[in-house]
Every structure is written in structure tokens, then in C-alpha cells.
Amino acid sequence: MPLVRPFETSFGRTHERRILLVEVEDADGAIGWGEVTCGERPFYNEEWVGAAWLVLRDFAAPMVLGREIASAKGMGEVTAAVRGHRMALGGLEAACWDLEARKQRSPLWKHIGGGRREIACGVSIGIQDSVDELLELIAVEVAAGYRRVKIKIKPGWDVDVVRAVRERFPDIRLMADANSAYTLGDAGRLAELDEFKLMMLEQPLGHDELIDHAEMQRAMRTPICLDECIRTAHHAEQAIRLGACRVINIKLGRVGGFAEALRVHDACRDAGVPVWCGGMLESGIGRAHNIALSTLENFVLPGDVSASKRYWTRDVIDPPVEVTRRGTITVREDPGFGYRLDLDRIEALSERQEDLT
Ligand code: OSB
Ligand code: MG
After folding, report:
1. Residues 324, 330: Cα–Cα separation, whole Å
2. What is the structure's pLDDT at 199?
3. How confident is the model at residue 212 (pLDDT cuts 50, 70, 90)?
4. pLDDT-above-70 percentage for the chain
5. Pairing assessment for the beta strands 317-318 and 328-330 based on DSSP bridges
6. Looking at the annotation, which residues are catalytic?
7. Phi and psi dihedrals of 200, rounded to 5?
8. Protein residue closest via CA to atom 14 of ligand 1
9. Who has the most CB within 10 Å: 33, 184, 295, 297?
10. How far is CA 138 from CA 175, 208, 284, 328, in A?
11. How is residue 320 annotated by DSSP?
């Protein structure tokens, strides 16, 4: 799926997404859909679409096919022998939750225990060729009603850029995401961000560096939010115990699906740490799953879940995800993830398909 505009982070620029979708069918013919949220290249984390395909085909599918699985919640145990590859497994797991919700004629958000009928939306804006272009993009999103703006930073595109954004938009809720582009050697530079009243600084240091983040958090006032570092509820507990962050971004795929996302959510809630829902440039299917996740009680900060039209000229779901003038998405009452699948669109976009029985 070609993106409406390229998206650049500290680890590279993406022009089009290659999205792996999972459809599951049970013995009664009930179906469910999920999305594998990994990138095209193993740069955000170690996963990528090519590997996810093989992990699902050669390992996960043989573990689940023909097995009696009592509930979507139990999927993780069935595939527990696979180390890592959470986004691959998470696409399959989310499809099973969708199936289960549809079967019970329940919207997915209700099925997972969510309550919020309307979720608050923020936008994530990539690195641009110039500060002027960035300022113009922010102006458009603020005018559209989005409730917070996240900009991507990297060495060479950080303090001066944030300063320029703050000067032009003194009152917006603003944050920055470095996607692991810095080390503790940059602590002084990162602490300069303190003067810009950022809501938080997301994942400044290494993707697996809890201890360094704890040291960084002690060296700055701005709350640190962890993304890449948090792959399990146990990681969340450890990060909180160490003081490595004050906010956590929960991504459904990164933690391996809804069951672990719920555990991360609960661990953060119990520790008094607010969470928000991250995004991975998902198609409508992953986007709809993110909306359901965002209805849980401790998702108290605006997430990176925004309108389909910011990414796609035509989404794979119908209607596309739309955002109100208040910068919110209203949840739907339809069973499962709540949107119709545009199967013609999916078919037209498909490069390959494999049926595993
Ligand atoms: O770190 O949150 C991130 C996109 C790709 C990989 C990592 C990240 C992102 C985003 C975009 O920030 C969120 C979105 O709009 O889907
Ligand atoms: Mg991030």
C-alpha cells in the first residue's frame, strides 16, 4: 500500500507498506482478521514481513491448526515455544480475538473489556526535508482537531527543530520520538529538550536499554516514554521499578497481541503509569484493533491512532477510520473489529497468499 506521504523516522524512510494480513477460520466456519505490524525491514525491531511470513507458515500455523483452543486468551500458550517474533504471532492472536468477538456477536472493544466510546487521537509526524514543511504539516493537523502532536527526532534534527515548533505553537500538546537514535553520551543534548514543555520524550536510547533509560530519566525533567523496550508486562514492571520511564506506549504487535497488551495495561494501571496506543502505519485492520485496545481504562493519553486518509488513498476497510472535529474516533458497535472488509481492495493489493489447513 503506497503511503499518501513518505514517513521518516531515525531509522529510515518508508514510501510504501507491505502488509501481512492473517485470516483465521475455525471448525464452525467463523472467521477473524488480524494484521502483522512489523516493518518491511528489521530496523524498528528485529522483525520484518519476510520473516513474519515464514514464522507464521512454518512454526505458528502448525502449532494451532487442528488444535482445540478454548479461547483467544489462550493463544499465547499454544505458540509459546516461539521466541520473539511477537508481531508475527500478534497478527495471528489478534485475528483469533476478532473471530471470538464476532462469534459472540460482540464488538471487539467490549470483548476485551474496554469501556470508552470515544478515543482521543494524536498524530505522529515524520522527519521532513525542512523545518518549514514540518511547521505546515503540524498546522494542518492542529486545525483538524488532533489532540497532540508527536514529531520524530534524530541527531541533527532535534533541539533546534523542537524549538522552532514550540515557538510557532506555544500551547499544543507536543512530544518527540527518537526511535532509539541516541546513547547516554547524548544525555546533555537530550536534557536541553527540557525547556520545551514536552509531554514526553519517547524511546531516546537503545531498543533494549532499560538501565540507560533509568539514568537518562534521572537526568531530565521531561517524562520518558518507552516504546521499543517494552515487549512484555514483565518489561513494563521492570522499567517502572527502575524509573526508566513515566509513560508507556503500548503497541499491540510489539507485545504479541491482546493478551499481553492487557497485562501490560494492567501492570501500568496498578503502578499509576499512564499508557497510550502506538501505531505502526497500519492498514484499517490493524488500525481497528488499535481503536479497540484504546478503549481500556488506562489509555488516558491521546495515541498515535489517526484517520485512514492520513496514510491511504483507499483503505482495506469500509468505511475508513475517521476522526471527529474534536480529535476523537468514535467506536463502532458492529461485532468484531467493527468495520467491513474491502475484500476487492485486499485482493487487488495482494502480492501473495497462502492457505494453510
Ligand atoms: O515509533 O511509534 C513509532 C511508525 C513506524 C515505526 C515506529 C513508529 C511509528 C510511528 C507512526 O510513530 C505511528 C503511526 O502513525 O502509525
Ligand atoms: Mg515510537
Report:
1. 8
2. 98
3. very high
4. 100
5. unpaired
6. 152, 251
7. -170, 165
8. 279
9. 33
10. 12, 31, 23, 17
11. P
- Residue 259 C-alpha to ligand 2 middle, in angstroms? 21
Q: How far apart are the CA of 124 and the centre of ligand 1, in A? A: 7
Q: Which atom of ligand 1 is nearest to the CA of 150?
A: 12
Domains of the chain: which residue ranges? Answer: 2-105, 118-340
Alpha helices by DSSP H, listed for 145-209, are 159-168, 187-191
Residue 142 — left, alpha, or beta (φ > 0 → left; ψ -120 to 50 → alpha)?
Answer: alpha
Could you tell me if the CB of 182 is within 6 A of ligand 1?
no
pLDDT reported for residue 108: 98
Q: For the domain bounded by 2-105, which CATH number is listed?
A: 3.30.390.10
Average pLDDT over residues 32-58: 98
Backbone angle region of 20, left / alpha / beta, with phi > 0 → left and psi within -120 to 50 → alpha: beta
CA dist., res. 43 & res. 301, Å (int): 26
**280 ligand 1 Cβ < 6 A:** yes
Mention the CATH class of domain 118-340.
alpha beta
| Ligand 1 binding pocket includes 100 (Cβ within 6 Å) | no
Omega before 170 within 30 of 0, i.e. cis: no
Residue 268 Cα to ligand 1 midpoint, Å, equals: 21
On whether the CB atoms of residues 24 and 96 are closer than 8 A, the answer is yes
User: Going along the chain, which residue ranges are E strands?
Assistant: 2-9, 12-16, 20-25, 31-36, 118-120, 123-125, 149-152, 174-177, 201-202, 224-226, 247-250, 275-277, 317-318, 328-330, 340-341
Q: Which residues contact 243 (CB under 8 A, 6 or more apart)?
A: 214, 217, 218
Phi, psi (deg, nearest 5) at residue 345: -65, -45
Q: What share of the chain is helix, strand, coil (3-state, %, to 5)?
A: 40, 20, 45
Residue type at 157?
Answer: W
CB of 208 closer than 8 Å to CB of 238: no
Q: Give pLDDT, residue 58.
A: 98
